[in-house]
Amino acid sequence: MRIVFWQNIISPHQSFFIRKLAENNDVILAVNEEISFDRITQGWKKPDTGKAQIVILNTKDFAFELLNRNEGAVHIFSGIAVYKNLKEVFNKIDKKQTIGVIVEPVSTSGWQKHIKRLLYYFKYLKYNRKIDYIFAMGNLGVDWYKSVGFPPKKIHRFQYFTELPSYQSIPSNSLNSIPNFIFIGQLIDRKNITALIRAFTHLKDEQFLLEIIGDGPLKVKLENVVKENNLENKVVFYGNLENNNAMDILAKADYLILPSKFDGWGAVINEALSRGVKVITNTNCGASCIVEEMQRGVVYRDNEENALETAIYTVLLNFKKELDSTRILAMNDFVNRYSHKIVHEFETILLNK
Length: 353
What we know:
By secondary structure, the protein is an alpha/beta fold. The protein folds into two domains: 2-163 and 336-351, Glycogen Phosphorylase B (Rossmann fold); 167-333, Glycogen Phosphorylase B (Rossmann fold). Helix content is 39%, strand content 19%. The chain is built from 13 helices and 13 strands. Strands 3-2-1-4-5-6-7 form a seven-stranded parallel beta sheet. Helix 10 links the parallel strand 11 (255-258) and strand 12 (278-282). Helix 3 (60-69) crosses helix 4 (86-92).
């Protein structure tokens, strides 16, 4: 089977997926650029896509040429008619072709939610007949695309992926005598990092360590809050780290906390679960469905007052150091159910058309 993926960049959160597909299929990855400048400055390297053929879409005409050369292939787009070159190809592609889209849910908070719903309803009216498959991120994505009109039979729950660690990279965490929490992400409002720090200031008499990896406009403000509450020995700011270094620190943690106001998926949850690390997150994060299904942490409702603080306090009250053998079992469970199995299911869906 030939599969052409049309993406803006080579996504580090789809490289494992594409590499595995390319082992048994003829896979072409067509992108506007290999990796964004922002990713490079954060220490990212070009993702490993294995046997997949990488094609750079230098011009719209070249993109059309690639489309014409691959008539009869399965065409999978990132988003519905978005990004330069990809939008033009999506609008041009013949309805007789097999077409799928990989899509995220949409934040429905605030006054813009009605405009967004109307916009996506128009997308449904314009593109529904053209699209064969909608691969939507998590339960949030499935619910959103059903709600704007797309037929449930077209919608399949999907996810982002991360590279899987080796067992040798998972250190024993038995030396941690107190609960070790970690946040990884940008220090921006959408990530709700201010609420996270505030929750820990209310719990400052408890025993814990909070490590924060990432940078952003809120960093100085957050550092001042930590100092004002005499938490310098309990809250550590690392700034931006290369991905390998960040993952080494994550692997030693007991809990990852992702308290975002909205995250279409939240791939750092994959990173945690694949290392046996439990997660505290909320129902506004797409990957929360995996945390719930695996029963590997706490998923709270963000619209409930003090829900994040309550979730952390519950963990502190019931904290018990997890055996390394239990973490290994959890890693195996995640890898089998949410990495290899999802790739196989994707292949099966396309083959059974």
